[in-house]
Amino acid sequence: MLIFPRVLPHLLAIVFIVDLSSWQAAIIKFFPLLWPLLILLDLVEKPCLKRRSGHPEKTWKLILWAWVPLHILMILNCLALVSSDSTSIGDTIIIAGFAGFFLGMIGISVAHELLHHRCRTERYLSEILMSLFSYPHFCIEHIEGHHKNVGTVLDPVSAHKNRSFYFHYPRAIAGSFFDAWDIENRRLSDRKLSFFNIGNRMLRYGFVLFSMYVLTYIVFGISGVIFLALQSVVGFSLLELINYIQHYGLARKKDGSGRYERVNFLHSWDSNHLATNCMLFNLGYHSEHHCNPSLGYEKLKHTRTSPQLPVGYFAAIWVCLIPPLWRHVMNERAKSFDRVCSEMKRHDVISA
Predict the structure, then answer these.
(1) 217: nearest Cα among 203, 205, 231, 228
(2) Distance (Å, whole) CA 248 – CA 251
């Protein structure tokens, strides 16, 4: 796997940090120029590469670690910009939308990857990134809820077939938050720890968010708070958009005893598209990710026998915002994979 495509997000972040003093120019470069280019590249399939590269594992980790200070620096740069007397509330909203889109696509992909690493420091880095989107409970619910319950009615971020994103969105937001609380309460109960305990991750996240917003208000004023809140909403909305795309209409079946079948490669949509996987750290190889959650992004590969998205994420997020078009594109594909799943089960060829 080549190194250069993996550092493209970092180079873009540096360009935006340097050029953000003229934020109109940065936004003009991103939306009218860069985003259509990413969509065009997402119509191209990514070449199949060897699973293991010649680079040491630490190289791939360093690429992830390097994103964190760039992300924080870009947030601080934006906060300084919106707190300026020359920046109106309307400008603040536009800058927040731009930051939420760019940082949401890249930053949440990095946070997701770091979250699956066993190193405690890397998980802390993931929590820092998700806190900057006011969504740190994702770090609990994703690992201990979503990966366990994906493709079932117990998972709030797995979208049923025919459910539009607009109907799915509030369920995903509220459901993941309350699921995180339930998971944490059970953990504390199992360890015989009180609710008001320093080990309560949800309380700790709440304190971090409260402190972050108070500090933002003190240093950058109300414009800074508005920016931080709006870019958070854009960022975690992108997260739920991608969750919606990754599992739409794919359900795990129950066996004779009423237990759900094991997660396998038929329970996630795969995207073997160039921009998605180069820019988002192989996030499109989602089928193998769910079958092998601890596998690093540099080792993930395309699963040809899994359900296939017709386009990459940079295009798909716009398609799913138009429900009739999304259902037209995806429902027949989901139905065909239901048939494939039944046929493969009949011949006992599905493996986890």
Answers:
(1) 228
(2) 9
> Which of left, alpha, beta for 192 (phi over 0: left; psi -120 to 50: alpha)?
left
On whether residue 292 sits in a domain, the answer given is: no
Handedness of CA 240, 245, 248, 250 (dihedral sign): negative
What's the pLDDT tens digit per position in 182-225?
999 999 999 999 988 888 999 999 999 999 999 999 999 999 99
Q: What would the mean pLDDT of 153-171 be, rounded to a whole number?
A: 95
Residues 6 or more apart whose Cβ sits within 8 Å of residue 264: 291, 350, 351, 352
Strand partners, 308: 270
- For residue 342, being part of any structural domain is answered with no
Number of domains in the chain: 1
Torsion of CA 98, 276, 289, 302, to 10 degrees: 180
Please indicate, yes or no, whether the overall pTM of this predicted structure exceeds 0.85.
yes
Distance, CA of 24 to CA of 201 (rounded, Å): 39
Amino acid at position 286, single letter: H
Compute the distance between CA of residue 57 and CA of residue 60 in angstroms, rounded to an integer: 6
Q: Which domain holds residue 157?
A: 4-250
Q: Which of 99-102's residues contact partners 24+ apart within 8 Å by CB, and which partners?
A: 99/74, 99/75, 99/227, 99/231, 99/234, 100/230, 100/231, 100/232, 100/233, 100/234, 100/235, 100/237, 100/238, 101/30, 101/234, 101/238, 102/12, 102/13, 102/16, 102/30
Tokens found for residue 152: 């079932």
181's tokens = 């609380």
Mean pLDDT rounded to a whole number for the chain: 89
Dihedral sign for Cα atoms in the order 195, 199, 205, 209:
positive
Dist CA 351 CA 246 (whole Å):
20
Residue 92: how many CB atoms within 10 A of its CB?
A: 22
What tokens appear for 111 in the block? 């946070």
